[in-house]
Design goal:
Length: 291
């Protein structure tokens, strides 16, 4: 047998390795064509999604076809991914057919649930036991999506707790706050100075001082400003828990003439007049236009 040495042997070994890799790429009987994605997570109305279908086996490239059912409006399948922005709520079932370069085929039944966007909510982790000394509290945003600001009213028993007025401040420099206090009621307008907020964020910090030892009961009412609408929530006693609320029609993104959303939060005393808030805010959006 003739042996090959030197550079020619190296080149031959590389060529044989490449050939073996190409001919053996996921084509063995133990690697049938299939989709690894057998279930899909819930998605949210109006929120961009990009979900991999994870094809494997067979021989690339793959092609994808919806052969039964229907995709949520706004979503499409391309390049092995389900992507787009869903525009209709509901549960959608469909069957995807995958074809490989050898014309092998397989199908997978999938289902995706399109839910409404979770509404933003505020929380205060208030103590649930008797309070004996100054208590620092944080107002925190939960489930923020495109959140721009809020009108907030916090209430407590003025005979039992006093506000340390020097303690009221925004949680960080990216927020602006305007507030007033009287008789156990703290009204605060808070808005972002930059872009919208997503997820969880501290918004406001303040300290209450007990007049006498007792349990702190906090009331919280708020109206949020976020890309896509408004939301009103109320809660009472202890650590507040937001109640389901109605999303007002209209709304939309803050226009370029009001990049910070501060014009909507100019009068803390208007907190109770939520209809006026909605109407004024829609006027701002109409005049400014969408970004």
């Amino acid at each position: 047998m003739r042996r090959v040495y030197g550079p020619r042997a190296t080149i031959l070994a590389i060529a044989l390795g490449i050939l073996a890799a190409c001919t053996g790429e996921l084509t063995s009987p133990t690697e049938p064509l299939r989709l690894l994605a057998t279930s899909l997570p819930a998605v949210f109305l109006g929120e961009r999604v990009d979900l991999p279908l994870r094809p494997t086996g067979g021989l690339r490239p793959y092609s994808f076809t919806v052969v039964d059912g229907r995709l949520p409006p706004g979503l499409s399948v391309a390049g092995g991914r389900l992507a787009g922005t869903p525009s209709v709520e509901g549960r959608f079932a469909f069957t995807i057919e995958v074809t490989d370069a050898n014309l092998n085929r397989t199908v997978q039944r999938l289902e995706v649930l399109v839910r409404p966007l979770p509404l933003p909510a505020l929380r205060i982790d208030a103590p649930t036991t008797d309070v004996e000394g100054p208590t620092a509290l944080r107002l925190r945003l939960h489930e923020g999506r495109g959140w721009r600001g809020a009108k907030v009213e916090l209430t407590w028993d003025a005979d039992a707790f006093a506000l340390d007025e020097g303690s009221v401040r925004a949680a960080n420099d990216s927020l602006a706050t305007f507030w007033e206090y009287a008789d156990g009621t703290l009204r605060v307008d808070v808005a972002t100075l930059g872009g919208a907020l997503d997820g969880e964020h501290d918004l406001l910090r303040f300290t209450l001082m007990p007049v006498a030892r007792g349990r702190l009961g906090l009331g919280l009412a708020s109206e949020h400003r976020y890309v896509g609408g408004h939301h009103f929530e109320t809660s009472r006693e202890g650590a507040p828990v937001s109640a389901p609320a109605q999303t007002a029609p209209g709304g939309g993104a803050v226009g370029p003439e009001d990049p910070d959303g501060l014009d909507d939060f100019d009068d803390p005393g208007e907190l109770d007049d939520f209809d006026d808030f909605d109407d004024e805010d829609r006027d701002v959006d109409d005049e400014a236009g969408s970004p």
